[in-house]
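Sample pair:
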Amino acid sequence: MPEGVIALGAIWCPRTLFWGKILLASINEAKWLGILAIVLFIVGVQTKNTIWLPLSIQPALCAVLFMFAGQKAREASLVDKGVLPPALWICALMT
């Protein structure tokens, strides 16, 4: 964070979700969706020390990968009750 900018706690979370959903929706039509999600994640991580983007855009770039994983899990019905054994749910929650 740049000099003089005060952190505001968890206020970044709704903005991150907002921008992450916009980014995911914009790349959903792409042929290489998984590759683009990884590229956005890498850009978000690599730029955190060199440039500060306002409105929680950098966390949103990283969130796209996790939102993509959740989207694919939902499409594969992995989040339906009884599909995954309880041990895997525990591992997922710990992660």
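The helical segments are 12-27, 33-46, 57-75, 86-94.
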